[in-house]
Amino acid sequence: MKQSEIKELSVAELQEKLGEVKKSYSDLKLSHAISPLENPIQLRSMRRTVARIATELTKREQ
């Protein structure tokens, strides 16, 4: 998810999206621990998406 897409979302949508992405990231991490992923770079991109959304939420709280 790009930064421009994140900026267009409302606070409620951001919180909902953050929960979804965190859940899918933890599922992906668990499946990677059991058997290696075909593309482990997915973990990095999902982790960065979580950080982008969390940063935008923090920015809007101020």
From TrEMBL:
It comes from the Bacteria. GO terms for biological process: translation. Pfam families: Ribosomal_L29. GO terms for cellular component: ribonucleoprotein complex; ribosome. GO terms for molecular function: structural constituent of ribosome. Keywords: Ribonucleoprotein, Ribosomal protein. InterPro entries: Ribosomal_uL29, Ribosomal_uL29_sf. CDD domains: Ribosomal_L29_HIP. Belongs to the universal ribosomal protein uL29 family. This is Large ribosomal subunit protein uL29. It comes from Hyunsoonleella flava. The lineage of its organism: Bacteria, Pseudomonadati, Bacteroidota, Flavobacteriia, Flavobacteriales.
